[in-house]
Amino acid sequence: MTSSGTSQRQAAREPFPREAWQHIKIEMPGSLELFGSHNRGHLQVTLSNDSSHVLEPHKQAEIAYAFRVLDSEGEVIMADGIRTPLSQAVAPGERHTQIVNVAIPQQYLETAAAIRVGLLDEGRYWVESLLPGHPCDVRLMPAADRNGVEALLAAGSQIWERGKNNKLRWPYSPIMVSERHKLLYIPIAKCACTSLKLMMVKLAEVERADVAEELDIHFITDRFNTGVQLKDKPMELAREILASDEYFKFSVIRDPYERLVSAFLEKFVYKRTSRHNLAHTRPVISAIQGTDDIDLQTGISFDQFIQYILQQDPYDLDPHWRPQYLYLLGVPHLSRVFRLENIVELEQYLRQNLGITVELAHANATRKSETVLPQASTLTANAFDNRPAIHPDSFLTSPHAEAIRRYYREDFRLHQAAV
Predict the structure, then answer these.
(1) What's the CA gap between 373 and 393, in Å, rounded?
(2) What structural domains and CATH numbers belong to the chain?
(3) Quick check: pTM over 0.90?
């Protein structure tokens, strides 16, 4: 290494001059809404460097954002706060915006009214000790329902943008891409898509992938511009990726009958009162029961569910029971389709051919046992409430079994031909 290179590295390791801190300003919103079981929030903070020195987060004197928790009287509560390292160097005259992580321990949630956010020169001092006016107070606003749709939207908006959709139509819009790995995944609902979406979000290096997972991977990627879906890309780039033969383009499909049973049990039986599921099931239940004032306690039967499906145009069905082959139409250079039951083949392919090591645990798997319940297809949802989990084959006695095979015939062919 040259002497000039050595001197540059030594200069970079010098602590930020104490007198220069008076030219560092930070700005942030005056309030922050908390969400989720961990009482978390993500605060967008902008730093302005009006000094003549580079503010650099080198390891020897790491610069980080930190916060103190305040009660309603402005007194400091002795609670441990998260530190968020400055994510990049900020040159003189430049501004830098990043997300600062906030989490309030449950035991302090009732008394916490605000946080005081400032910069910390690790191992040396809070900037506040030099400049009392440096930190900013941010009022905390715990949401009444931190897991509802409005709370999810508020939480997601702290990190990702909305309204950047390029208007690419379905089924292309939700396709997920890792440009670095040349990997393209076509998600099909009820086919391990939760696990696979989590994998793609991490491979695509989506900002705060951990938060996307905590909130709801489907909700966040569909509602926000995370950069992982084709809808998030500039239209020209999205079309280029879709047409490319350089990507490994894959999907995972499931036995059509088992997929229907899984959708019915999860959406209409075991989790039928979930507001998230009701967004999918309410129109079906309302049509079957003939009223907008639906009876969730009773619910519907599998046979009623199938009768409803058989009367619909396949394109109009909810994604969770829409035919799987429709997801793949028009995708050129499709590399491979894997069966859900052989998903280990996908793990091996990614490891051997792309150097990606991943364990695709089947999230949201339908509860399964060896118990076969006769005439299960005729029973309404409430009949399952006090029973142990049953085997999906219990529904094979449905009188609509042959009609299902005809309606989903392309899916059965696709599943038979898959790896």
Answers:
(1) 9
(2) 3-144 (2.60.40.10), 153-254 (no CATH), 256-324+363-417 (no CATH)
(3) no
Provide the CA 100 distance to its chain's centre, in angstroms. Answer: 19
| Axis crossing angle, helix 275-289 with helix 302-310, rounded to the nearest 10 | 80
Q: How far is residue 297's CA from residue 382's CA, in Å, rounded to a whole number?
A: 6
Residue 192 region by backbone torsions, left for phi larger than 0, else alpha for psi between -120 and 50, else beta: left
Stated as kind and residue range, the H or E segment containing 363 is none
Nearby residues of 174 by Cβ (< 8 Å), 6 or more positions away: 187, 221, 222, 229, 230, 231
**How buried is residue 30: exposed, middle or buried, by Cβ count under 10 Å (0-12/13-18/19+)?**
exposed
Given a contact cutoff of 8 angstroms between Cβ atoms, the answer to whether 186 and 331 are in contact is yes
Give yes or no for a contact between 372 and 393, defined as CB atoms under 8 angstroms apart. Answer: yes
**Residues in contact with 274: Cβ distance below 8 Å, sequence separation at least 6, in sequence order:** none
pLDDT tens string 305-353 = 999 999 999 999 999 999 999 999 999 999 999 999 999 999 999 999 8
pLDDT per residue over 246-292, tens digit each? Answer: 999 999 999 999 999 999 999 999 999 998 899 999 999 999 999 99
Task: Give the separation between CA 282 and CA 278, rounded to whole angstroms.
Answer: 5
Taking the C-alpha atoms of residue 190 and residue 188, their distance in angstroms, rounded to an integer, is 6
Low-confidence ranges of the chain (pLDDT < 50): 1-12, 363-364
Please give the single-letter amino acid code of residue 215.
Answer: L
Which residues 6+ apart lie within 8 Å of 202 measured at CB? 209
Joined tokens for residue 307: 């009768």
